[in-house]
Amino acid sequence: MSVAKKDYKRITTKSLIEMKADGQKISMLTAYDYTMAKIVDAAGVDVILVGDSASNVMAGHETTLPITLDQMIYHASGVVRAIHRALVVVDLPFGSYQSDPKEALRSSIRIMKESGGHAVKLEGGSEIKESIKRILNAGIPVMGHLGLTPQSIYKFGTYTVRAKEEQEAAKLIEDAKLLENLGCFALVIEKVPAHLAEQVAKSISIPVIGIGAGGGVDGQVLVIHDMLGMNNEFSPRFLRRYMNLYEEMTTAIGQYVTDVKSSDFPNEKEQY
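The structure assignment produced for this chain is given below.
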């Protein structure tokens, strides 16, 4: 006999842990501004990630590294003002937490106070455990991020699949258990073999959200610009495009240009 899934009017960190325990998959998407976040929230997405991917899709940078803490707070503030149900998680940008646990705490406090975000996300495992401990001790929820960590792109030298070798896979499992033990409420695993991601999800009690990590995890996350087809240059295997907005928007804007130049717009009904 199937049991009805709980309907959450507001998603919290506790909700996500309950969802995993109940076998309910977690949906997560990025958003970086008020208008998009309002749409994403109304559609029923559980978690909105204000990702440092804003560096790529909003500012046009090649990597996530250039975006600043001030810019992340700006993006997160608009998102928080839009939502009624989703949990808002904000990425700590490169350089705001790696070097010093005190700096990590200061950065996290700024995000929580100035943007109103509900949690922060950090990339890495054992190498940043002191930063995670300090943030958690201040009462700030932390989401982890393992596997492909884009802030370390120059260390890896490529965006290829991570943890294919036994040693790196073992470290990923070890780091996932460490993050759980430290008190993280959830974990993103990016671009690792599906069987490994599923193994991690089964070995810990906190939710594992995958991106390019197969279907055996507790939820999925995508960048909103990618899944809506606004970005037509990015086509990894894990991406499913639910729309082709690049083509649709280009067509619509082109029609507007034509209508303006032909004096078709505005017509008599569109004037005062």
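Interim note for the steering committee: The radius of gyration is 20 Å. Residues 166-182 form the longest helix (17 residues).
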